[in-house]
Amino acid sequence: MAKKIIIFGFSHCGTSILKSIIGHIDEVYEIINECNKIDISTDKKFILCKTPKFNKIYLSDKYDSYIKIFIIRNPVYAYSSINERFNYNISKFHRLDKYFHTVNNFVELVNNPRKDIYTIKYEDLFDNNFKNLKSILDKIGFEYDDKIFDNSNYINKIVDDTKFESIKKNIFHIVFIEQNK
C-alpha cells in the first residue's frame, strides 16, 4: 500500500512547486488536481496530493495515515503573487486573518515539531542546492537524484483538465473540509 503524502499551506506559498518537485520522483504517484484526501491506490511506493489551504483537521487523527508537509511563504511575496493573479481582488480565502491563522499554526509546529509533519518555508526551498528540502525528502525515505530539481526535464501540470469528474470530486473534498472547520 502506498504511503499517502499531503502538502498544504496557504495560496501562493509554494504548494504547487513543492508538489511538482516531489512528483518528479519515480516512486511517487502525483495526483494532478488539488485535493485534500487520497482515496485512490497505486502500485508506486508513495502517492502525493496538495491543497493550497491549511485546515486544523490535517493535524488531527483523521490524517494519521498521511505524511504531511506544511509550507509557508513571506506574506509580501505571497500577496504580491495573489494580487497579480487576481488583479488586487482579494477573495475571502485570501484574507490576512486566514494567512495569520496558517502562519500561527506553522510557527507552533516549528516550535513543537511532530515526527509526522515536516515544515519548510518557501524561501528555504532553493537555498544551498535544495539542502532543506533534501533533508525532508531523505527523512521521508525517498530515493531520488538531483534531476528532480531540474524543472526543464519535466512537463508539470497543476490541473488535469481532461477529467472533469475528478475535478468535481476534488472540489467536493475541499468544500467539505472548508465547511467543517
Structure report:
With 181 residues, the chain is of the alpha/beta class. The protein has a single domain (3-179), classed as 3-Layer(aba) Sandwich (Rossmann fold), CATH 3.40.50. The protein is built from six helices and five strands; from the N terminus they run E-H-E-E-E-H-H-E-H-H-H. The chain has helices at 15-23, 75-86, 96-111, 122-125, 127-140, 164-179; strands at 3-8, 28-30, 46-50, 66-72, 117-121. Strands 2-3-1-4-5 form a five-stranded parallel sheet, sandwiched between helices. The longest helix has 16 residues, at 96-111. The protein is globular and about 40 Å long. The chain starts with a strand and ends with a helix. The model is unreliable at 170-181 (pLDDT under 50).
Number of helices: 6
Question: Into which percentage range does the β-strand content fall?
Answer: 5-15%
Q: Which class best fits the helix and strand makeup?
A: alpha/beta
Main sheet properties: 5 strands, parallel
Query: Topology as H/E string?
Result: EHEEEHHEHHH
Distance between the termini: 29 Å
The assigned CATH architecture is 3-Layer(aba) Sandwich
Describe this protein with a few key phrases.
alpha/beta, 5-stranded parallel β-sheet, globular, 181 residues, Rossmann fold
Secondary-structure topology with pairs:
Blueprint: E1 3-8, H1 15-23, E2 28-30, E3 46-50, E4 66-72, H2 75-86, H3 96-111, E5 117-121, H4 122-125, H5 127-140, H6 164-179
Parallel strand pairs: 1-3, 1-4, 2-3, 4-5
